[in-house]
Amino acid sequence: MKMYGLIGYPLSHSFSKGFFKEKFERENITGCQYENFPIPGISEFTHLLEQHPQINGLNVTIPYKEAVMPFLDELSKAAAQIGAVNCIDFKDGKKTGYNTDVIGFTASLHPLLQPHHTHALVLGTGGAAKAIMYALEQLGITYTVVSRSPVNGAISYDALDEAVMAAHTIIVNTTPLGMYPKVDTFPEIPYQYVTSRHLLYDLVYNPATTAFLEKGAGQGAVIKNGHEMLILQAEASWEIWNGRAFSH
């Protein structure tokens, strides 16, 4: 039995396990199982692998996309540049880290892009944000990072005036604000300056329409949640685990 799984903490509302269970059934994939491994500290990663030597591949979610990297033997070029891993492949005694978030985000954003979508605001600074920044660079879109505690070139939410909002017509939420069960929370951007020229993208997918997206839609913006990105990154992980490698 080949085992795959997801590490993170907590994992009470994980997308991956249900996705792979359905995939295995739909595509008649036998001899495989996918499990959640909620480890309260990354130090337990080694113990997890000792307990389950049959693991062939793992996905990685909050809060370990960066913390897991020192435990790996190799990184793909993109994962090394991004500085975050969400997929680990186990082959020939080596653990190799990849980033399939960048594949999923790029493929789901690209069809929505218009000629005026040249500058983006990236809300948040975590591992997911790093993949988004890398993807935007690959797409030739410049970005400004927005953070509650601005460092390393990021700006604060207070700096988002009408001119900044008008100049940045893509806004990507990489924070967990608005995620179930805290559905009433949202990034504190000045939504009154959002227009129909804006594209709001939320990595959160539960609920399908977060408060962030709802407020954007109310201003006429195009909105997109993270569900398709999740499906695409999961499929890319499966491709990697089965030997159809990506540079990411």
Automatic annotation (TrEMBL):
Transmembrane segments: none annotated. Residues 6-88 form the Shikimate dehydrogenase substrate binding N-terminal domain. The keyword Lipid metabolism does not apply. InterPro entries: Aminoacid_DH-like_N_sf (IPR046346), NAD(P)-bd_dom_sf (IPR036291), Shikimate_DH-bd_N (IPR013708), Shikimate_DH_fam (IPR022893). Pathway: Metabolic intermediate biosynthesis; chorismate biosynthesis; chorismate from D-erythrose 4-phosphate and phosphoenolpyruvate: step 4/7. Keywords: Amino-acid biosynthesis, Aromatic amino acid biosynthesis, Oxidoreductase. Pfam families: Shikimate_dh_N. PANTHER family: BIFUNCTIONAL 3-DEHYDROQUINATE DEHYDRATASE_SHIKIMATE DEHYDROGENASE, CHLOROPLASTIC, SHIKIMATE DEHYDROGENASE. This is Shikimate dehydrogenase. It comes from Chitinophaga hostae.
